[in-house]
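re: the backbone from monday

yeah here it is again, tokenized this time
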């Protein structure tokens, strides 16, 4: 079977790690028909938008997409293309497994966690108002003096509908993958209406899954426990912002963002991408670690039903990482180690391990 998949190379290091990862995925023997689409900062000049409608239409048609990292300007400029893709396609569930492979640089011996992040609400909904705007002044006036009139304001929506479906996704994932526990994470002791609703809804959903243990942890306590006792967590479900922060924290436990794959899944479409950013200063240097994108492709293969290929790919990556010879600089004990290889060469090693 040939799989028609939208491919978005991205910008910064995106195109070069995508080319490396493409070669690895094709080496599994699975057949792909790539529908290559462009998005990101470079498209502003030619299309007038970083996210052309043709990209969205391609994903809606093909149902499956893989994407390299795309630069998001900080503080000014266009809003995140990543967030826009999730909202436009209703990719409500962000799945970020964090597994420690032998040979990866870590302070720990065994990590196997899964972050399930609600993708459509919370502070990432993009409902914010500039300081001095009529909307910001109106909200400040309603605050009873708690918000100064000069403040910029961001709105945090949390709905029972969106919370219920992300909670069900987390429990269904746990059951399908023989996981034992789902932990809801929020800050309900302070944000009693929004995060309180998140906890209450997750708790209600948990009643339908008596075979899966359920508990709730405040986000600050969760950060401490992840550092001290990461083995006490299994599947974690949380609102958007906490999911973004904690998935980076968990990536730090397994060797860094270069080892952290991701998937964004909705009812109709799925988009697979690494957790890390576009790292423009490394663009074109053949230096970036391709592992996170390669493993995102492993998640894609599982989504496509190509379980054997996904298993073989994961084993090949684990072999190369454990061997520690043909890996990029960030995976060496000394980041200046002259034996570190480049993006292309690490992909070559994974392909060789696949064939062996």
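seq for it, each position gets an aa:
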């Amino acid at each position: 079977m040939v799989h028609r998949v939208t491919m978005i190379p991205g910008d910064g290091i995106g195109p070069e790690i995508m080319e490396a990862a493409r070669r690895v995925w094709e080496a599994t023997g699975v057949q792909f028909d790539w529908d290559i689409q462009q998005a990101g900062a470079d498209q502003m000049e030619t299309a007038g938008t970083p996210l052309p409608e043709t990209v969205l239409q391609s994903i809606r048609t093909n149902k499956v997409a893989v994407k390299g990292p795309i630069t998001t300007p900080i503080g000014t400029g266009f809003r995140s293309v990543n967030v826009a893709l999730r909202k436009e396609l209703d990719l409500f569930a962000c799945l970020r497994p964090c597994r420690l492979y032998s040979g990866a640089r870590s302070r720990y011996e065994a990590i196997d966690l899964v972050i399930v992040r609600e993708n459509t609400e919370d502070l990432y909904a993009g409902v914010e108002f500039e300081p001095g705007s009529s909307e910001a002044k109106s909200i400040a006036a309603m605050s009873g003096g708690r918000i100064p009139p000069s403040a910029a304001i961001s709105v945090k929506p949390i709905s029972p509908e969106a919370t219920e479906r992300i909670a069900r996704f987390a429990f269904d994932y746990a059951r399908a993958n023989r996981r034992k526990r789902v932990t809801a994470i929020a800050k309900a002791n302070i944000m009693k209406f929004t995060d309180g609703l998140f906890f209450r809804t997750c708790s209600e959903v948990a009643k339908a899954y008596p075979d899966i243990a359920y508990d709730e942890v405040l986000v600050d306590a969760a950060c401490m426990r992840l550092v001290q006792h990461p083995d006490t967590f299994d599947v974690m479900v949380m609102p958007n912002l906490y999911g973004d922060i904690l998935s980076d924290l968990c990536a730090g436990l397994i060797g860094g963002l270069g080892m952290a794959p991701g998937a964004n899944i909705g009812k109709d479409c799925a988009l697979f991408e690494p957790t890390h950013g576009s790292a423009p200063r490394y663009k074109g240097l053949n230096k970036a670690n391709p592992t996170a994108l390669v493993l995102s492709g492993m998640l894609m293969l599982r989504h496509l039903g190509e379980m054997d290929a996904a298993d073989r790919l994961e084993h090949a990556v684990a072999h190369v990482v454990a061997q520690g010879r043909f890996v990029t600089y960030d995976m060496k004990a000394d980041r200046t180690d002259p034996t570190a290889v480049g993006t292309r060469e690490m992909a070559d090693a994974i392909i060789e391990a696949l064939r062996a």
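The chain has a mean pLDDT of 95. Residues 1-96+260-356 form a domain with the Isopropylmalate Dehydrogenase fold (CATH 3.40.718.10).
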